[in-house]
Amino acid sequence: MEKIFFVNGMTCHACEMLIEDALSEEEGVTSVKASNPDQRVTVDFDANEITEERVKTVIRGEGFEVE
Q1: What is the maximum span of the chain, computed from C-alpha positions, in angstroms?
Q2: H-only helix segments in 9-51
Q3: DSSP state of 2
Q4: For the chain, where are the alpha helices, taking DSSP H only?
Q5: 31-61, pLDDT tens digit by residue?
Q6: Residue 54 carries which DSSP code?
Q7: Measured between alpha carbons, how far is 24 from 13 in angstroms, rounded to an integer?
């Protein structure tokens, strides 16, 4: 399943990498692409292994706001 999460607070490439690295470590996440200019993170994941809420929790844990 692919889902786009709108994220506030990304200001640079390092922010993108921080989010991508954190989510890539989660079980069930297949791919992650963060875009600072678009303020969004596209996540491909197995909904049987990880929930949307868990994805949001990981992003928030890195210091960003997510809708």
Answers
A1: 32
A2: 13-24
A3: E
A4: 13-24, 52-61
A5: 999 999 999 999 999 999 999 999 999 999 9
A6: H
A7: 16
